[in-house]
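Researcher: I'm preparing a figure for a lab meeting and need a structural model of a single chain. I don't have an experimental structure, so a prediction will have to do for now. The sequence is pasted below. Please return the structure as tokens so I can convert it later.
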Amino acid sequence: NPDSILFFRMGDFYEMFFEDAKVATRLLGIALTSRDREREVPMCGVPYHAAAGYIAKLVREGHKVAVCEQMTDPSEAKGIVERAVTKVITPGIALEDELLDPKANNFIAALCASKTSCGFSYMDVSTGEFALTGLNDLQSALEEVRRLRPLELLVESGQEEDESLSGLPVRKITPLGKYDFDLLEAGARLNKHFGTKTLDGFGCAGLDEPVRAAGALRGSIRDNQKTDLLHVRKLQPYFTGDYLILDSSTRRNLEIAHNLRDGGKDGTLLSVLDRTKTSMGARALRSWLLHPLKDVSAISGRQDVVEELLEARELCSSLEEALSHVYDLERLIARVSLGAANPRDLSALKSSLEKVPIIKDYLKLLSSRMIRALEEEIDEVSEAAELIGRAIADTPPISIKDGGVIRAGYSSELDELRSIGSGGKDWIAALESSERARTGINTLKVGYNRVFGYYIEITKSNIANAPADYIRKQTLVNAERFITPQLKEWEEKILGAEEKALKIEAMLFGGIIDALKAHSHRVQRTAASIAVLDCLLSLSSAARELNYTRPSVTEGDGLEIEGGRHPVVEAGS
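Model: Understood. Here is the structure written out token by token.
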């Protein structure tokens, strides 16, 4: 990864060297130091537990970050600790919350062109959305880039120098080799990913240029993430002609999702209409506004729901309350599928799924055709919620390495080890009182240090009263630390039990993740339906609050407006 800043794991830190260190110190505001051997080696470092924030800063500046982890425990390694690059984080490939806008997609896209047409494909790794389309010429393809605003754009090597790409609203343009865009190789990559022999089942027959773009995109993401994208289950062809085409100038002047002032959301049509309660709903509403429907039947279907919801104010309030407790199911299940979920992600997944039966019950009280279809699509996935509830503690730590993640009663072996550790700590807690009584030293303390383990501490003024069975362990400025044979024995029991417990917890947690992966497709389907429901509720809420009326939409060309109002101008006045 020669074009990436390397985060090299060394114990509790990630270190950077040479030019990487110089770039990092300038952008992160951390100290630059050096190692002197045969020549000076510039270096800097950040604590591993705070690395996500530092990585986010670098990626927002358009850099790629390669994370090199220790693959073996340094305490058990013989010689050099084995290391490997486990992932490469780029502006368009991110799963970490610090790098994601909860209300916007994190798209990475690929673009390729032949003499007669262009191929365009995009993916949001954080949700699993994957689509492709064909366009007649490069300018049409660039308009699609401007509409979707991917954070990263992949192009064929040499194309990055094309002046027409300058000024695009992307954070990084990444060139790939000709091989990456080869049609046969691209198709093979996609077929291997989906387990298919042909892409015709996805509707990709004859879409050579789009398939080239999609295959290059899939290959690049696989190379960077170092894992299979199990949550990416379908490739969706789309056609720009299915939606009302708004060029970048029109979108900009109408301030649909980005204002003219600073490109932000304030003062836009999106800000007026967005009353969504979930992150999935917010992203879906943005997509709806950027993809205006042309099909009268589809438009009427949405209007029917909004009209019905307007007449059911109390039910809407109940639905909104339930949705407000639903976390980002799309991104949670994506992290589960990629093996990147932490214990708190599982807690959030469980609490979200527990709201699904309530939402379904409310939807049964509505009758519009679109709502009935949504209610059918929403899956309670009760097995997943039950497993998490049975296996994961109510308030787990964020990292499995901290322990205390697995609920008591889930594993008898783990419970036994915890009992040994707890009993030992009770004995040590009582040791301080008994040793004070035995020695007559009221200031005697029993403590623990990660380096030296458990110890008995006596101030130097009381050293003469130390019993003969005290073995000196550490000398401090004003005190001495000791251990006794009995304390050493309990220390080995406690630390041994804790170490084994942590390993068992990690193994159990991995098994839980694997079990949840089997339900990922059902959770994705539920998340998509909840997002649509949230959009419809948001539109009904805006219509109620702002006193909007239902327009009549026909197949004709005429436009007749009575008592028209400009929602953005009105909101700003």
